[in-house]
Amino acid sequence: MTRGDALVILLAAALVGGAYALLWSPAAPATQVRIVSGEREIARLPLDEPRRLEVPGPAGITVVEIRDGAARCAASPGSRGICQRAGWLRQAGDMAVSLPNHVLIEVLGDTGRFDSINY
Amino acid sequence: MTGMKGIHRGTLWITALVLAALLLAGCERPEIHRERFFAFGTLVELNVYTRDADLAREGADAVRADLARMHRDWHAWKPGPLQEVNQALARGEAIRADPAVLAPILEARALSLRTEGLFNPAMGRLFALWGFQSDQAAGPPPPQEAVEALLARDPDMADLHMENGRLSTENPAVQLDLGAFAKGYGVHRAVDHLRALGIEHAILNAGGDLRAIGRPGDRPWRIGIRDPDGQGVLAGIEIQGDEAVFTSGDYERYFTHEGVRYHHILDPRTGYPARGSRSVTVIHEDAGLADAASTALFIAGPEHWPRIAARLGVDKVLLLDATGVAHMTPAMAQRVAFRKEPAERRIQALPGDPGPAGGP
């Protein structure tokens, strides 16, 4: 094997590795939580500082809890608990929504995998 | 200009020009501008790919205003043009409907006939009976006699007539609810409005259902289809050009009563939530049709969906049944990339369509 061959193999391996990292890396862990009330972003907070936040809305108070690199909707006025059922939000792009209270809790991170989610 | 000196000067100029062009391109690099707001009774997200931030903002304002107006016009249980039509129909009177509501009603009627009545917006009374004509349905399910009594009166879009610009029906049980169609119809028109403003690359997502146009730069739009079982993504779809992706799922609106879950996709033949499907995703260039089709195919179920899809001219369908099997058209199978493997993949050509392999 010549040095040229080795270089080609090395470059090819780097290319495959790069493509793998770019296209197949697992969902990125979130680093921040973004809280929107109505049409206004009211907070953008790091996920590594534990805290509880009360967000007022037209139906009452939505409680957002941040702990251990994740955020969740701990309490919300909707009678069916849809916001709370979203559970702990850890992966960038995860979100919990309270429609009656017009509150959106979304965790952000370094991900560009999907432009939009269909459900 | 002489020999070496000339060449050097030319190289210099070209290099400078290329650098300037690159720098200028860098200054005005297009990017995705994202806006989220509440409209149409749901969470709306608009992505616009452009170098003009003002244009993106103008687009968001236009969409917000459009959706608010449509939501008011087409609301089935709050005062507005649709409620006026319903009140007149209940009294047995003909009504010259507001043009804002007449167009979607007529289009919904045509679609209803093509779905053999599975998409039946004349069943407003059934949705009300189940409590789904409220912001939060809580149950319990209605008495069976009430459901049967309504089905016996057979409200159907074929009972709705249009004569001399006036809507009428001889069946006073007909009450219109455009719930399974209005969002698609509205999203389609709102995106047309974005185009008229000069926006070429965008995704408008209203409560999970979306229409995408153009592409963000040199790659397609990437859409994730959420797993009906939870927060993760079931599959990815790439879009470039102009397509809508609509999903109807049993997880969207429901209530639980005495341990039984009742979802909002009601089968007009039984009067009860349709069984057999968990979710249906449809890709089509017409968002209104995609919306109605996803509902009709969900109700048709794992056995009968291909016939209805063929009648609607919908060739990209993914139906996830109650046992976890993914039923797909060949065209959908080519487009969808699963992130979570379904229990089984079943690819089925539509009747009248030999499919890529030639078929029977």
Automatic annotation (TrEMBL), chain A:
CDD domains: NGN-insert_like. This is Uncharacterized protein. The lineage of its organism: Bacteria, Pseudomonadati, Pseudomonadota, Gammaproteobacteria, Chromatiales.
TrEMBL record, chain B:
It catalyses: L-threonyl-[protein] + FAD = FMN-L-threonyl-[protein] + AMP + H(+). Its EC number is 2.7.1.180. One of its GO terms (molecular function) is metal ion binding. InterPro entries: ApbE (IPR024932), ApbE-like_sf (IPR003374). It is an enzyme of class 2 (transferase). PROSITE patterns: PROKAR_LIPOPROTEIN. Mg(2+) binds at residues 180, 291, 295. Magnesium. Can also use manganese. It is found in: Cell inner membrane. The keyword Cell inner membrane applies. It is a lipid-anchor. Its cofactor is Mg(2+); Mn(2+). GO terms for cellular component: plasma membrane. Belongs to the ApbE family. This is FAD:protein FMN transferase.
